[in-house]
């Protein structure tokens, strides 16, 4: 029997990936001070006109009631995002002025960890004005936007302000989706393939840092920016060591070596790391069609301790695992199979997600966003100097490394559950990763 | 298979990976300008294995070999 639901204007059926993200949100609210959220930060090279920014953002948000939606279940049991007719909530925008640059990081950390007011609030803004620079931070609920979607959302806002026919800009956004209650055999076959992969991966329990006792912890962030010259050097090194366009395996290999160094410093033995790496699954060129909700899947890399000291061997292992997973269609199967999880309530799914790896799930999380989906070099007529992301990482593992590229510069944000790692260890990771990535390497 | 035929097959594959129209893909355009990243690169290698029965992941491809569809077609042509 097939259930077919018509598309509805105020109902966006959640995909399996959306449902997993939602279960992680539930788990994070239980384990930490806030949910599965992130923050994208724009560094603006001007003393921002905060009233203009506030008014413009509020006007834009009013056009998009999806921003005030909430999760519900339909009569056919498929979960969906209930989109209200009108925008009920007023957009939360805080403006702060700081004299001391060290205060910026604290304010950014605070806004990245601040829980949303209620189940209908999914984005909030914090504008920090510091002398001739301004930092615009948009905290967003991962149930509504993924990282690329968040950048594209602000890109759309910029278009909305600059185009003469503003409502036209919003026309192509897709705000309805099929219920996904068909093609069951396809989903079951995908589920079988995913199950086999997880059984193979779960033979070894991944090593991870012990989670500190106590709830309601926030996340700390280390923001590392590489300048134009360093970025060019890193890309040259990646090309030389890993091959043309192989930045992701190169960056991941170096992060693995740095984390392995941290384990050694603590006297923890390492037998194996398991690292999920998010990949963008958007098919179309026009990101506007897939702006809201999650369009990601994952590659899983299992690295044994024997491979960790040899960079070349490590890179080859990552490349080989990436090749095998892409060839077998694993990321697509994972996205397809996750539709089967939607029947499970979030607390149950949260527990199920921990089963294969004896509660550990991963050693740390990694992503390399690559080229930004914010396409303009300006924001409200002024220059955007840099963009980076501050995601809160699911616990466990509570540790993540997030690279992105904007305006010729590579950024790395280390995100960690408070007290999972200490300040001196964060500094050690920073020094080690910088030294590994941005040192001049010569052909052997 | 001639180099031109290999180029045409590669254009088809890259168009599918990048969700672009075939006509927008120039054979002398560097891959990074076609919006290919590490994942897209690996997808291209998987496509090459399926289309030409050539496994290139473990070969030492240089930037020169893989910089454009034209240079890649020449590389594949030598290996076939």
Topology:
The complex is a heterodimer of chains A (444) and B (80).
Chain A: E1 11-13, H1 16-31, E2 37-44, H2 50-62, E3 70-73, E4 79-82, E5 92-97, H3 102-113, E6 123-130, E7 133-141, H4 147-162, H5 166-169, H6 184-201, E8 219-225, H7 228-242, H8 247-266, E9 272-280, E10 296-304, H9 311-327, H10 330-337, H11 346-354, E11 365-371, E12 378-379, E13 382-389, E14 399-406, E15 409-417, H12 423-437
Parallel strand pairs in A: 5-6, 11-14
Antiparallel strand pairs in A: 1-4, 2-7, 2-13, 3-4, 6-7, 8-15, 9-10, 12-13, 14-15
Helix pairs in contact in A: 1-11, 6-10, 7-8, 8-9, 8-12
Chain B: H1 3-18, H2 38-52, H3 63-66, H4 69-79
Helix pairs in contact in B: 1-2, 1-4
What are the main properties of this structure?
heterodimer; A: 444 residues; alpha+beta; 4-stranded mixed sheet; 12 helices; B: 80 residues; mainly alpha; Non-ribosomal Peptide Synthetase Peptidyl Carrier Protein, Chain A; 4 helices; 0% strand
Explain this structure.
The complex is a heterodimer of chains A (444) and B (80). Chain A has 444 residues and is of the alpha+beta class. Chain A has helices at 16-31, 50-62, 102-113, 147-162, 166-169, 184-201, 228-242, 247-266, 311-327, 330-337, 346-354, 423-437, and strands at 11-13, 37-44, 70-73, 79-82, 92-97, 123-130, 133-141, 219-225, 272-280, 296-304, 365-371, 378-379, 382-389, 399-406, 409-417. In chain A, the strands form four sheets. Chain A has a six-stranded mixed β-sheet with strand order 5-6-7-2-13-12, sandwiched between helices. Chain B is mainly alpha-helical and 80 residues long. In chain B, helix 1 (3-18) crosses helix 4 (69-79). Chain A binds chain B through residues 239, 243-249, 279-280, 283-285, 316, 319-320, 322-323, 326-327, 368, 370-371, and chain B through 18-20, 31-32, 35-43, 45-46, 49, 57-58, 60-63, 65-67.
N-to-C CA distance of chain B: 8 Å
User: How many structural domains of chain B?
Assistant: 1
- Secondary structure class of chain A reads alpha+beta
User: What assembly state would you assign to the polypeptide chains in this entry?
Assistant: heterodimer
Top CATH class of chain B: Mainly Alpha
Largest interface in this structure: A-B, 23 and 26 residues
Strand order of the largest sheet of chain A: 5-6-7-2-13-12
The string of secondary-structure elements of chain A, in order, is: EHEHEEEHEEHHHEHHEEHHHEEEEEH
């Amino acid at each position: 029997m097939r259930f077919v639901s018509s598309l509805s204007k105020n109902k966006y059926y959640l995909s399996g990936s959306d449902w997993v993200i939602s279960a992680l949100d539930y788990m994070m609210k239980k384990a930490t001070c806030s949910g599965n959220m992130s923050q994208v930060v724009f560094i603006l090279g001007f003393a921002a006109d905060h009233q203009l920014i506030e008014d413009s953002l509020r006007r834009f948000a009013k056009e998009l009631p999806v921003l005030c939606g909430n999760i519900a279940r339909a009569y056919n049991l498929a979960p969906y995002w209930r989109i209200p007719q009108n925008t009920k909530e007023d957009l939360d925008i805080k403006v702060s002025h700081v004299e001391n640059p060290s205060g910026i990081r604290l304010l950014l950390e605070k806004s990245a960890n601040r829980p949303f007011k209620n189940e209908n609030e999914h984005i909030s803004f914090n504008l920090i004005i510091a002398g001739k620079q301004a930092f615009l931070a948009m905290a967003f609920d991962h149930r509504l936007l993924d990282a690329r979607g968040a950048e594209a959302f602000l890109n759309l806002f910029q278009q909305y302000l600059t185009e003469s026919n503003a409502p036209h800009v919003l026309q192509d956004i897709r705000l309805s989706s099929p219920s996904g209650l068909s093609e069951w055999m396809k989903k079951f076959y995908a589920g079988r393939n995913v199950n086999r992969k997880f059984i193979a991966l779960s033979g070894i329990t991944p090593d991870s840092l012990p989670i500190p006792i106590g709830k309601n912890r926030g996340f700390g962030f280390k923001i590392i920016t590489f300048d134009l010259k360093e970025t060019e050097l890193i890309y040259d090194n990646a090309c030389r060591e890993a091959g043309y366009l192989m930045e992701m395996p190169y960056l991941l290999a170096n992060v693995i070596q740095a984390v392995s160094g941290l384990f050694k410093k603590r006297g923890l033995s390492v037998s194996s790391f398991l690292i999920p790496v998010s990949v963008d699954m958007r098919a179309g060129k026009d990101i506007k069609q897939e702006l809201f909700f999650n369009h990601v899947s994952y590659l899983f890399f299992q690295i044994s301790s024997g491979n960790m000291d040899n960079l070349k061997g490590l890179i080859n292992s990552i490349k080989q695992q990436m090749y095998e997973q892409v060839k077998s269609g694993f990321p697509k199967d994972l996205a397809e199979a996750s539709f089967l999880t939607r029947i499970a309530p979030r607390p149950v799914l949260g527990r199920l997600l921990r089963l294969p790896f004896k509660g550990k799930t991963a050693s740390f999380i990694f992503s390399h966003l690559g080229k930004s989906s914010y396409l303009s070099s300006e924001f409200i007529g002024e220059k955007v100097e840099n963009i980076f992301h501050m995601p809160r990482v699911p616990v466990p593992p509570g540790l993540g490394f997030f690279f992105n590229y904007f305006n010729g510069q590579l950024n790395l944000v280390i995100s960690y559950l408070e007290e999972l790692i200490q300040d001196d260890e964060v500094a050690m990771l920073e020094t080690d990763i910088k030294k590994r990535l941005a040192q001049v390497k010569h052909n052997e | 298979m001639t180099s031109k035929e290999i180029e045409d097959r590669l254009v088809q594959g890259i168009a599918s990976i990048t969700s672009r129209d075939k006509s927008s893909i120039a054979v002398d355009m560097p891959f990074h300008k076609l919006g290919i990243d590490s994942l897209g690169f690996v997808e291209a290698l998987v496509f090459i294995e399926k289309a030409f029965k050539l496994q290139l992941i473990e070969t030492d491809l240089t930037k020169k070999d893989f910089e454009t569809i034209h240079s890649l077609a020449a590389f594949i042509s030598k290996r076939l």
